[in-house]
Amino acid sequence: MKLDFYNTVEGKAPSFNQGDVVNYRIDDASRFNAWYDQMKATLEADGPYSNFFRGVGEARYKLYNSAQRFWIQNNLREVESLAKPMSYIDMIQNMVDKAKEVKLLQQVFDYYDIGIGQQDFPLLSILQHYAAPTPLMDWTYDLNVALFFAIDGIKKSDKDNVIEDYVSIYRVNKNIHSPFMKDNLNFISGNVFPSVKKLSEFLTDKMVVYISDFEIQGAEDKNNRMIKPLTTYYNLNILAQRGLFIFNPHENMPLEDFPGLYPPAAPIPDNRIFCYNINKDLAEFIKYRIGKDGINERFIYPELKMYSQNILSEYLKFVIG
Questions:
Q1: Lowest CB count within 10 Å: 27, 150, 215, 268, which one?
Q2: How many angstroms separate the CA atoms of 148 and 146, rounded?
Q3: Given a cut of 70, is residue 81 above it in pLDDT?
Q4: Contact by Cβ (8 Å): 304, 161
């Protein structure tokens, strides 16, 4: 089976909230600057954790997670029915259960006093970091980080005025999009991490949930670890990227197709996911713009060895004079 794609920028418009329509399709630097300043003002007004961003290098892609892509492209529904009946969630649960057998990971969870019954989502975070197919999708609180991922390694089309000429930035606002997205998993679970299957059953009403270690409430929780981290085990990238996940338990439904998202129809406001499509010709301009804020490959993918070598080099320069 093949994944569904958008064929044109205009063709994907019905699936998304276009916000200020002039920013739905951004083709020049002045329009980008106006949109960028508008986003920064929105973030300042809404607060640090109200908006999530995702940068995608191809505007034609739907918002599938990696497990959905793996399941659909390998036609696993048909394969599993021939071999051993196994649902999409069973596939995920099976993969997580196999990961629980890794001795090093068990030592980590023993250290943090996380029993085997609560290890599913910390393990999914680790598997996501190492590119295994998971039902988690990467998002970030940082617009600059989303822009970095949107333009990182882009490939331009040989044709003119096609959707392949665009990258996309998606934005979810917790207040606007609450009809299809439940609160942070740490909060709704009472700091007791569920299994993949249990949470999937809880979300049978066609909803998703987000998972973040950043939204720890109050200094006491942070200092005393009253709330256990879910996403940052073995993963410094999450901290650098101000990252979080959205967990989508449904085998073939991309985020923009959830039934809780509606185009405007009085008295219902437009609560579809925001989408901004940016011409790839602006990639170098964007790279320079976010680079002024220190967002580059070295920051996004921190290597402690590199930082240690730089610190040693600076120390030697100081000693030698």
A1: 268
A2: 5
A3: no
A4: no
- CA separation for the pair 96, 1 (Å, rounded): 25
Decide: helix, strand or coil at residue 240. Answer: helix
Contact indicator for 55, 167 with CB cutoff of 8 Å: yes
Structure tokens at 85: 């009946």
Task: Give 158's pLDDT tier (boundaries 50, 70, 90).
Answer: confident
Q: In whole angstroms, what is the distance from residue 134 CA to residue 248 CA? A: 9
Q: Which two tokens stand for residue 73?
A: 């492209």
Distance CA 163, CA 175 (A): 30
Q: Under a CB-based contact definition with an 8 Å cutoff, are residues 128 and 247 in contact?
A: no
What is the token pair recorded at 321? 């004079």
29 has which bridge partners? none
Amino acid making up residue 98: K
Cβ burial, residue 321 (10 Å; 0-12/13-18/19+) = exposed
Q: Burial, 113: exposed, middle or buried (Cβ in 10 Å; 0-12, 13-18, 19+)?
A: exposed
